[in-house]
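Model it.
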Amino acid sequence: MSELDRKQSEKDGTPINIPSKLPLLPIRDIVVFPAMVLPLAVGRDKSIKALEEAMATQRLVFLVTQKHVQTEDPSPEDIYNIGTVAEVLQLLKMPDGTLKVLVEGIQRARWTDFRMSSRGYNEVDINVLPETADKKPETEALMRRSVSLFEQYVKLNPRLPMEIAVAVSNIADAGRLADTVASHLLIKIQDKQSILEFSNPQERLEKLVQLLNAEIEILNIERRIQNRVRSQIEKTQKEYYLTEQMKAIQKELRQKDDYAKELDELRVKIKEAKMSPEAQDIAEKEIVRLEKMMPFSPEATVVRTYLDWLISLPWAINTKDNLDLKRAQKTLDEDHFGLEKIKERVLEYLAVLGRVQKIKGPILCFVGPPGVGKTSIAKSVARSLGRNFIRISLGGVRDEAEIRGHRRTYIGSLPGRIIQSMRKVKSNNPVFILDEIDKMGSDWRGDPSAALLEVLDPEQNYTFNDHYLDVDFDLSRVMFITTANTLYNIPPTLLDRLEILRFSGYTLEEKIKIAQKFLVPKQIKEHGLKEDEIDISEKVITDIVKNYTHEAGVRNLEREIANLCRKTAKELSLDKKKDTVKLTPESLGKYLGVPKYEREKIAQNDIGVATGLAWTEIGGETLTIEVNKMKGRGVLNLTGKLGDVMKESAQAALSYVRSSARKLKINETLFKETDFHIHVPEGAVPKDGPSAGIAMALALASISTSKPVKKGIAMTGEVTLRGRVLPIGGLKEKVIAAYRDNIKTILFPEGNKKDLTEIPEDIKSKIKMVSVKHMDEVLKISLEK
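Modeled.
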């Protein structure tokens, strides 16, 4: 019988056709049940010939278990009367002449006539034993009991995997269940044979339940004996260990005295630390554990380090706040020029603190371009409050354990950087700077921004739980200040917990005042110069800002001033007769080299050329937008490393101009026969966003109508297909950039009128600010007649 025929027979539900006589294959030390698949190693001649006969016919063989394993040539008295008809699934001949076969049990059968065939193998007549399919309530109960007992048996027997119990619980047929469970039991062959000989499933299950109960009882006894022996061994080892320890103590009695003294000191420090009740309870338990350890054992070192961390944290140590608002205002003004919003927020905090004595620390986020004083103003905030200051940089942090620490189970584990910083700052109410919060990353080690959610939430951080300490530490009195260049990379859930305070770029006048009041005196002092040895006038500072720096902040300006001080120190050292170095705009080239930036960097507006305004992480920028046309098929080309949003904005601008062709007196065939090319110079710099929409629409209208764009005019705003001008962000930074590049008129969306209050008055007085609602207004104002 082929495997295909057998599978087809099982699928159709028809009984398999088993011949009345089959080759006999006696097997040793195993009982094969129906539906059981197992490999057999065959080496006896008669058995090999029996298998060869089976493979030549229907691949069926009759498997019956021997009563005695030692019998080499079994007679009818040496085998049991009932066995299993099996199919040979695979047969493999080995180099030594033996066979390896894979067989699957099919049906119980009883042999009746044992004889030797003419081909040299034993052959038997068989009677197949039918199974009754009647399923009574008693049978169902026995099935459930069998499954339950077998699960207990598998749990107690380590040699059987738990997956077997799961597979058995899914069997619905009573006979199949009994056979499967019996095949996996590690019991005597005689007991397995007795189960095989029951053709009635209910009787088979009753026998199985009886055997399972007996086996479970034996396994429980074995487990009790094993536990008793293990306890006895551990007790013996413990006694030996304590005896040896006593010998060591008696030998080095002085060491014991020092160790006991150290433990007493730790107890005193724990009381003096004024920990939370939870932390004190854990510390005292660790002391008890430490007493029972050898002083120089690795585990004792781990416990001692843990206690050191608990003791050294500022549980109850705080600095007294300076509640004098005038003095705080003076301190802030001494350190920084401008930044009125930030100073006002700190004074508000002090005013409320003076009234309620204890409030939850605010979570501030300073956002702005580099070099505008975000980190330095945070230091001034700490000085004005009279608090300790601590700063950690989160740039490049990718591991969640950097924030929350590692668990003590790891070798060399430590608390996270929050707890480490609190230990270092030695007070529980410092000003805590989390610098570059937008530069964090995440990888397979976790997401540190998710760990910061608890730290930066006033409703949660009073119970901050570090993985290493595993006790709550109160961070609610800490004034957290985070800094970032942009908000785009901060997750929304974290951003929701922050109070955003924006820093904009400095104007030329502000940079000059900052240089005169702060940067020049600082660099003169740092370079060992006297005030009368170097003369840096306001005109010199103006030239440095305009020709040697191009930034929103003052970091590069400070570098250039430092460069001047170094050159001056060198010059005075070489020429002892010289008392002072007076710098002029004309002599700057000698000290700082050729000017690095050309202020007139934007192209003059012309036909197809317009000036847009952009916002970047380092402040505002002016963008020259150039449009050209050539004969073609109406294709729009975009270059200058533009982002997807800016490309879509260009498409919208072209669609608006095409739809307004009649109004603008443009020949409509122009757009079918002409290709347009929009280019934004500085092609290596990525650009994106919709705010250049009206500038691109103006340049397209200019090239299409051959009318030049007025000079000295720049604009910002998003354009729609219908020509509406929508509001944009970063207006202040864009206006400062336009002022820096000598723009005289700025067109901006009417929806941004509210932002005019943020623009310095001295800039507003020198630039004409024109609000627009529609592209028609933009074209009317910007195109030459």
